[in-house]
Design goal:
This protein is mainly β and about 110 residues long. The protein is about 0% helix and about 45% strand.
Amino acid sequence: MIKLAEHPNELNFASNGMAEVTVNGKKICVARVMEGSETRLFACAAACPHAGARMAKGTVDGLGNIVCPLHRYKFSLTNGRNVSGEGYHLKTWKVEWREDGVFIDLP
């Protein structure tokens, strides 16, 4: 696990709940999603696998899917599966928010 920050607020989330960070030279999109009163963090590839749009410029829909800002393709934040039917896959990584910081399971 690689430490991203001491606290999620250090990731400078935009108003859409997304941040783009660089970890070991790799650009990653981190999404902050509210589920009831709980905040969950997810990480995925920074670029859409279809046309390379920056996922951090997209949105998260009510079902917890990240929506590409260019062509509106939707991907599950938990497994990267394309849920809008185009057949693409978005790379995802596990994120943990612990007492000692925010960590990503990036090899």
